[in-house]
Amino acid sequence: MANVLQAQLDALNQLRLVAHEDLLELQLSLGEHRLLIPGIRALLAENPLREGLWALLMRAYYRSGDIGAALNAYQESWCMLDRNLGVQPGATLRHLHHAILHRDDDSI
Question: Per residue in 78-107, pLDDT tens?
Fold first, then answer.
């Protein structure tokens, strides 16, 4: 019974994180870039392997005009994923990194 409850709790937590990421995405689209950075960082402290959060952080930094911090966030994500999972960032993060490097505002 405890295993079933834990599985349900884990599933609900994942849904909560997805909803929070969706909310952050909407807030970014409203121009609240700099204000969102501390909250995204806090979520990443609890969920460092969520590439969606790393992408949101990179976009928030970039749209705030801090390109260096956006690129550093990519490096942080790379190190975190490599150290913990032995993998490189996925396609979304790689494309976002490329767009930041080339200042492709339409893709960010």
Answer: 999 999 999 999 999 999 999 999 999 988
Q: Output the six-digit token pair for 51.
A: 């590439």
Distance CA 60, CA 74 (A): 12
Label residue 4 by pLDDT band (50, 70, 90): confident
Q: Domain-by-domain residue ranges, the chain?
A: 2-107
Output the pTM of the full model: 0.92
Please state which architecture CATH assigns to domain 2-107: Alpha Horseshoe (1.25)
pLDDT, one tens digit per residue, over 12-48 is: 999 999 999 999 999 999 998 999 999 999 999 999 9
